[in-house]
């Protein structure tokens, strides 16, 4: 019998680590994604709280005392609009999937449209109250003149948004949910008209905002519902990959339209030499950086979808893209609360409108 070799003495300073106690690469990646998501959400919450003051710092511009609440309310309004419009958009994509996509039953997750319409209605009503006091925060009921809303342009547009969200919410509770696209379209038209009170070619500016806001709502809200549907279809990866692929192709067109309308709108309102010298320009630059980050994440998700469409790793950059887009929506709301630059360039072909 051969002798058993002696066990070498253990290092006095070392502690044996049981297998499985060290975090795996997957756990570390999940933790990193949670941290990034938390940072982005906190940044989104900070936009209405600190955004106006940070954007105005050192510019010499001033804004009303209601800039913070207006940013909050319009952020909620834009997000509610995106959720409702995006759900209608994604449901239309789902119903047009190829016959071989193996769509499961039930084919769709639960609807968020009624909740989104409720949030939109309350946000629009809050903004209407601020408009009724002359764009000031009401401190008492006597300050509000709701009847006077009918006598002003901003008041009429605010009431259109309130009633449109109410109608969209009622339609969302019926079998004819697709008809909610009509009042939601009225909200977008009202926002486009409200954003352009200028004297020079306001209809052309409103048309740009109409396309810009519609595409942004479809991009953000559509991605949210597509991700919810893909999660619901976790056991049907072929159908989920088909839906993600169809959405990503349309999202590229939406991005092109958003970029084109945004650049033309900026050229009409903001001189290049004053981009960083105005609050509007600073917020706009921050928004452009976020949109660029969202596009990079979208291309990453598209590449993963093409290489391995049936793996859950495809959804990780898409989820990050959604969070970045939500933050960009908050900055878009902040743009409506900071002073608009007193600048107009009636150049090129848009001077004809």
From TrEMBL:
GO terms for biological process: copper ion transport. The chain crosses the membrane at residues 30-51, 71-94, 115-135, 155-173, 180-197, 203-227, 247-267, 279-301, 322-344. The keyword Transmembrane applies. Keywords: Cell membrane, Membrane, Transmembrane, Transmembrane helix. It holds the Pfam family CopD. Its main location: membrane. This is CopD family protein.
